[in-house]
Design goal:
heterodimer; A: 452 residues; mainly alpha; MetI-like fold; 2 domains; B: alpha/beta; D-Maltodextrin-Binding Protein, domain 2; two-stranded parallel sheet; 15 helices; signal (chain B); PBP_domain (chain B); Phosphate_ABC_transporter (chain B)
């Protein structure tokens, strides 16, 4: 008792002073520091999450409308006087009628549709009514006629795309007030669209074409799709997988299991680590110089893109594979060697299968990184307007194609505001691909990874 | 063992890919991002209406496009370079040294450069002199050149609104900037008498004219017009420099300013009343004509009346049709290579 009083009244806090619940100034200071650190950590996490939510929110709110599309149903009379002047149904002559020749048919069809539905709107000419329909429609008609020449002279029902502004009206991008000022659409046209909708001739549906159609020019944003870009990205991923995985695994198995430890392997190791940090545009310059200028490979082709991305992904795969190989305990190798396996047998029968989940995870993450890469593609001519689908592989590897991130980049530069929506939609598609790949990597790791 | 086979086949693929330069059947185009939308429109229509594949159109800038054109002759070089400024002697020399001797110059029309601000803001009526006095590093005051102290447009010209000077102009890598410098800033320099003073001070070519103030009143935009639009959206006081076609696609967000009292439009640019415009070109490698299928057809289609004429889709998108289109059509049909630059 006296001891305790003596200690607690002493000037400096004693080692065994008072109750544990009484905090001395030092403890308080330490606790405060800890709380501060925790708060800072939490703040950092909250900040990061908020940024992510903001980013995703803006992309999704901008882009989700790209997945729906407004269509107009028109009954077009395939006028023989315009499409087949001689009346002999000669495919070659009919093919000479360009899409410019088909546009008037659609204008007439729109006029008739208005008459039938008893729609009359003041200040709306025939040309204005025809502008509701996408400029893609004449091409759609022409293709149909060339494939069904015997239907000339009949009236055929087509489901055509509505023009970008009309589409935007039903997505909230265009309003009556903005149409007043807009040079490309008038309030009268929006009224017509509303009346067509009431008559059941205009509808909004899921935009499958966004995934299947090729890119379109600036005058028809409603027709632009990701078809060529998805195919191009897929081709490049195939090339990267086929080249980078075996090369990367072979290199790391050799370095990890067979190579002698000397200055040469050390140098290689340092350089691989460095390569992983090289800006990706450098690989693009390399690709241009070696694959296009020296090897004479074609421009804008997935083969060159794939080769460049392979170079970029290799270090990632090598590093991941070596880490996976290192994680396999030496006892496994020793046991295999002990029962008489050769070095190669021990590696291929025991070490590699055990390291496989780690290797696959690294490969998938490397592929995901390559999928989102734009900079190296800039220099090898893949940042381009490509409308033609590449052939099936392997010929298609040499045909021009686009890529998903490139398509996003291209669309953000276009003047028509409808492309903003398309670009955000493309980002969503790209993100879905990336999330799927990363999820696959996690699943593989969870299911097959062994811990020792 | 299968692993060894896999690596062997991978190497084989790499080897094959390095040797097989597949024959090219589509046209390759590269160059100016200003010409890109027009080229894309034509390429799309070409692919729809002809039995040839749709040409591939790359952007990347006028200078880069011309350099690519001049890399040599052969299937892995491009066929056409789009350009928003005329080819330079250095390009022609580079071409010649790489064996590209015959180049066709095709002028497709004119592009207007407009000044626009937020639709809810004030409207402006500019003259080149206003722009010079607003943005130049040094302006004329009482007969001598002094540092530019103008803060608002009203300081520049009492008729203009009392709004802070803030201009988003294209960065120096853009072809548009050249036109802006020449047709607006330099014209303004001349009109305000600053050019005289520069010359009197020993600056023979009046290079000082093009020096812009660096205090934040003029901001270079190195991106595209979409970036300029986003900047104006964020800062309603800003005035941006746009291409006519971009403005025409965004008339619900932007209000255009007049220049010398003329409203920019396809008509006023065609008649030459609106001063700030420039010709757009593409350059064709003649050695590829007849080698790349459809190349001749594509160029002829591009300059045909139904595409590049006053009622064609290009004009609808904002290209000002060339009054001398007939001469261009004839030259294209005859495959006339361009003569020396004058």
């Amino acid at each position: 008792m006296t001891d305790a009083t003596a200690n607690s009244t002493g000037g400096t806090p004693g080692r065994n002073a008072g109750s544990l619940f009484d905090k001395d100034p030092r403890t308080r200071k330490r606790n405060a520091a800890e709380t501060r650190f925790r708060m800072m950590g939490l703040a950092a996490v909250i900040f990061g999450v908020l940024c992510l939510v903001g980013l995703l929110g803006s992309i999704i709110s901008n882009g989700v409308s790209a997945f729906s599309q407004t269509f107009i149903i028109v009954d077009v009379f395939l006028d023989p006087a315009k499409l087949d002047k001689d009346g002999d149904r000669d495919p070659d002559k009919i093919a000479k009628v360009t899409t410019f020749g088909y546009a008037p048919l659609i204008a007439t069809a729109m006029e008739q549709a208005m008459e039938q539905a008893n729609i009359s709107i003041e200040g709306l000419g025939k040309k204005d009514a025809a502008e509701l329909v996408s400029k893609e429609a004449p091409a759609q008609l022409r293709n149909y006629v060339l494939n069904n020449i015997d239907e000339i002279g009949e009236t055929v029902r087509f489901k055509v795309l509505a023009s970008g502004r009309i589409d935007g009206y039903y997505k909230g991008r265009v309003t009556m007030a903005s149409a007043e000022l807009d040079r490309n659409v008038s309030p009268a046209q929006l009224q017509l669209a509303d009346q067509l909708k009431a008559a059941g001739l205009l509808s909004t549906g899921f935009n499958w074409q966004f995934f299947t159609a090729p890119d379109a020019s600036d005058t028809r944003p409603e027709a632009a799709g990701l078809g060529v870009a998805i195919l191009g990205s897929l081709y490049m991923m195939i090339i990267v997988l086929v080249l980078a995985l075996p090369l990367g695994v072979a290199a790391s198995v050799y370095l990890e299991e067979f190579a002698p430890q000397n200055w040469l392997t050390d140098a290689i190791e340092v350089n691989i680590a460095n390569l992983a940090a090289v800006p990706s545009i450098v690989f693009g310059i390399l690709g241009l110089a070696i694959f296009i200028n020296m090897a004479g490979l074609p421009q804008s082709a997935p083969i060159v893109g794939g080769l460049v991305l392979t170079l970029m992904t290799l270090p990632t795969i090598i590093i991941a594979t070596r880490a996976a190989l290192k994680a396999v305990p030496p006892s496994i190798r020793d046991a295999a060697l002990g029962v008489g396996a050769s070095k190669m047998q021990s590696v291929f029968h025991h070490v590699l299968p055990l390291a496989a989940p780690g290797i696959l995870t690294g490969t998938i993450i490397g592929l995901a990184q390559a999928l989102g890469e734009t900079a190296p593609l800039l220099l090898i001519g893949m940042v381009a307007f490509v409308r033609e689908f590449p052939d099936g592989p392997p010929d298609g590897f040499f045909d021009p194609a686009s890529a998903l991130p490139v398509q996003v980049y291209n669309w953000t530069q276009r003047g028509d505001p409808a492309f903003v929506e398309r670009a955000s939609g493309a980002i969503i598609v790209l993100l879905i691909f990336l999330v799927c790949m990363n999820a696959l990597a996690i699943v593989l790791r969870r299911r097959f990874e062994r811990r020792w | 063992m299968s692993f060894v086979k896999l690596s062997a086949s991978a190497l084989a693929i790499a080897a094959v890919s390095a040797t097989a330069a597949a024959a090219r059947d589509q046209i390759q185009i590269a160059g100016s991002s200003t010409v890109l939308p027009y080229a894309a429109i034509v390429a799309e229509a070409f692919g729809e209406n002809f039995d040839f594949p749709t040409p591939v159109v790359e952007s990347g800038g006028s200078g880069a496009g011309r350099k690519k054109l001049c890399e040599g002759v052969g299937e892995n070089t491009i066929d056409i370079a789009n350009s928003s400024s005329r080819i330079k002697q250095s390009d022609i020399d580079l071409c010649a040294s790489n064996g590209v001797t015959e180049i066709q110059e095709v002028r497709i029309g004119y592009d207007g450069i407009v000044f626009a601000s937020d639709i809810n803001g004030a409207t402006f009526a500019f003259t080149p002199a206003d722009w010079y006095n607003a943005l130049a590093a040094k302006v004329v005051k009482d007969g001598v050149l002094v540092d530019n102290m103008n803060k608002t447009w009203k300081d520049v010209n009492p008729d203009l609104p009392d709004q802070d000077i803030l201009a988003f102009i294209p960065g120096t890598k853009h072809g548009t900037r050249e036109v802006f410098d020449e047709k607006v800033i330099h014209a303004g320099c001349e009109a305000t008498g600053a050019e005289e003073l520069y010359k009197a001070a020993g600056d023979e070519k009046a290079k000082g004219c093009n020096a812009l103030r660096t205090d934040g009143a003029s901001i270079d935009i190195d991106g595209d017009y979409t970036e300029t639009l986003a900047r104006i959206d964020a800062n309603k006081n800003g005035i941006g420099v746009f291409g006519l076609s971009f403005y025409q696609n965004n008339t619900d967000k932007l209000v255009v300013a007049t220049m010398d009292g003329v409203v920019p439009s396809v008509e006023t640019i065609a008649s030459g009343e609106y001063p700030v415009s420039r010709p757009l070109y593409f350059y064709v490698k003649n050695a590829h004509l007849g080698v790349i299928p459809g190349l001749q057809e594509y160029i002829e289609f591009f300059v045909s009346d139904e595409i590049a004429g006053p009622d064609g889709p290009l004009s609808e998108y904002g290209l000002v049709s060339d009054p001398e289109l007939a001469a261009t059509q004839e030259a294209v049909a005859n495959r006339t290579p361009m003569g020396p630059l004058n």
